[in-house]
Write a structure and sequence with these properties.
about 65% helix, single chain, about 300 residues, mainly alpha, 9 helices
């Protein structure tokens, strides 16, 4: 009797058997899971992981600082250019202010002479006066918008401190000049006030004429002091020119400095600057004329 071969389960039956398995059993049959030869995290892997994070952070910080560096450098360049343009504008305004000083000074001196004439010749007609009254003058303000913007933006902290101090000194002196000029303008308006009640100077009583002489004298003094502030600025920052001469300022004040006094002040100023220079580190540039504010001298 011939032996029959063993029955072979058909592929169909295998699939049917698989269909009867639970989802968990089917998933287990599909995955071939191997136990790792070493633990997922070892000390070596931990330190490599930490080092990777640190290096990534350092790279990110370095890139950020590089971007900030170039950004701040761009800000400083923009600020310097804005300050340079503003200085060019202020130098031009400085020159016009000096020009107006020379134009207006003789007019104010003539006004004084007219009232002095009226004091000696009460009721004299305008045809007899030593000139005609003129109060019109120009008043030019200095620009500081670029400096104010630089202070507000915080960009000054990225500039060398000696440079910041030099710029601050310039604007301090410009502010002094502007304040002195405003005081001179205010004194001029005080001298003009008589015209509100009586526009005809020849009809003013003697007391008002004396008062007017005093007010015009003060206006002249304020004008000369404003010119002297300009001259001190020009001595500290030579790019600001021209300035009124010491002789013309003295003439406006009707006074003259003694040559010995001028020499003594010059020597004192030299000693003062030599001492201050000796106290600064060699790497720090000195500020021009920051400690001096002299009367006009020859």
């Amino acid at each position: 009797m011939t032996q029959e071969p063993p029955e072979i389960e058909s592929e169909t039956n295998i699939h049917r058997a698989n269909e009867s398995d639970s989802p968990q059993e089917a998933a287990a049959a599909m995955l071939d899971v191997h136990v790792p030869r070493e633990a997922l995290y070892t000390w070596k892997g931990f330190f490599i992981h930490i080092a990777t994070i640190v290096i990534g952070l350092l790279i990110a910080i370095g890139l950020e600082q590089t971007v900030e560096f170039f950004h701040h450098r761009h800000q400083v360049a923009e600020t310097r250019e804005a300050l340079r343009i503003e200085q060019v504008i202020n130098v031009n305004r400085f020159a016009y202010t000096t020009e107006d000083f020379y134009r207006y000074l003789p007019k104010l001196e003539t006004n004084l002479a007219i009232f002095q004439y009226l004091r000696l010749h009460p009721g004299a007609s305008p045809e007899q006066w030593p000139g005609r009254l003129s109060w019109y003058s120009n008043s030019i303000d200095y620009s500081d918008s670029a400096w104010a913007a630089a202070q507000g933006d915080g960009v000054l902290q990225y500039m060398p401190q000696w440079e910041v101090r030099r710029i601050a000194e310039l604007y301090r002196r410009l502010k002094e000049c502007e304040d002195a000029k405003n005081e001179a303008r205010s004194a001029k308006y005080q001298a003009m006030r008589f015209a509100i009640s009586n526009p005809e100077p020849s009809q003013l009583p003697a007391a008002m004429i004396e008062r007017e002489i005093d007010l015009i004298s003060e206006a002249l003094q304020r004008l000369a002091l404003a010119a002297n502030k300009q001259r001190n600025l020009a001595r500290a920052f030579p790019e600001f020119k021209p300035a009124a001469t010491g002789e013309d300022i003295q003439r406006a004040l009707n006074m003259h400095w003694n040559d010995d006094d001028v020499a003594a002040v010059d020597a004192q100023e030299r000693r003062l600057r030599q001492f201050e220079e000796s106290q600064r580190p060699s790497s720090v540039e000195s500020l021009p004329g920051q400690a001096t504010n002299r009367d006009s001298a020859r």
